[in-house]
Amino acid sequence: MIETVREKFSCRDCEKVSQAPAPFHAVARGWAGPSLLAMIMFEKFGQHQPLNRQAERYALEGVPIALSTMADAVGSVCTALDPLLRLVEAHVMAAERLHADDTTVPSWQGKDRHGAMLDLRTDDRLLGEPGRRRRCSYYRATEKESNPQAHLARYVVSCRRTPMTGITSSIWLGESRPCREAACWAHARRPFFAMADLEENARRKAAGKKEIALSPIAIEVVRRIDALFEIERSINGKSARSVWPSGTLSRR
Questions:
Q1: How far apart are the C-alpha atoms of 174 and 215, rounded to whole Å?
Q2: How do the residues of the chain divide into helix, strand and coil, expressed in percent and rounded to 5?
Q3: What band does 188 get if pLDDT is binned at 50, 70 and 90?
Q4: Are the C-beta atoms of 161 and 184 separated by less than 8 Å?
Q5: How far apart are CA 89 and CA 214, in angstroms?
Q6: DSSP secondary structure letter of residue 126
């Protein structure tokens, strides 16, 4: 138990009372210090340790903390960090391009045991433009709890998405300035690579397994994609103006 004594002093000339400020608390009227709160939050979100397991471990160490008290602490920390989240969100949304990835994650809340994590990130260094990687994530306990459209409503430039159920074409239909969709190239080419995997067929044949059916059309598509990859490797990390001179950039 830490007891803090703050004496009050009065001035005989101005008759004002002064007192030393109260010690800093991570949350208003908080019972836990910043180190304990940071440990609880990191164990929960960084190490995926539920609060009930943390409470059991603390009790074994002689520090019993009620589960509801820890849950209140998590909510208080989230509220205290909300301004920081808004700054990170504004920093990410200020990017010219975004990559949106909506991935299912395990969840034990309700009958639907699958939640979802919407991940928004950007990295313009591959385009030869200055700047650092930006990223923010939004979690929802069930896939149907909310639509990613709510998070992307204020984003108005270009967004690349993966074909998950949570991100539908509706998010690109804004009222004033909608996003311009850039479909995911990795997901688009994946089926063609699967139907033109000559090396996999060779491994299956060597192992005495049934060979997969190869598609001549898919093989031709992969050949053309390889040509695009060769161009991409030669311009990767360069800006658009270094690839196309200023006189030809506007015409293109």
A1: 39
A2: 45, 15, 40
A3: confident
A4: yes
A5: 45
A6: G
Contacts 24+ apart (CB under 8 A), 222-229: 222/189, 222/192, 222/193, 222/196, 225/189, 225/192
162-168, long-range: CB < 8 A, 24+ apart? 162/100, 162/101, 162/102, 162/103, 162/187, 163/187, 164/101, 164/102, 164/103, 164/104, 164/116, 165/102, 166/102, 166/116, 166/118, 167/100, 167/102, 167/118
Per-residue pLDDT at 172: 40
Q: How far apart are CA 155 and CA 172, in angstroms?
A: 10
Residue 98 class from Cβ within 10 Å (0-12 exposed, 13-18 middle, 19+ buried)? buried
**Token pair in block for residue 73:** 């602490």
Question: Whole-prediction pTM value?
Answer: 0.61
Q: Distance of CA 36 to CAs 27, 48, 214, 247, Å?
A: 12, 16, 58, 60
Q: Taking the CA atoms of 46, 47, 53 and 54 in sequence, report the sign of the dihedral they define.
A: negative
pLDDT in tens, 107-138: 665 565 777 788 888 776 666 666 677 888 88
Q: How many CB atoms lie within 10 A of CB 120?
A: 23
Top pLDDT among 175 and 124 is at 124
Contact 191, 215 (CB under 8 A): no
pLDDT digits (tens, 9 = 90+) for 197-235: 888 888 888 888 887 778 889 889 989 988 988 888 888
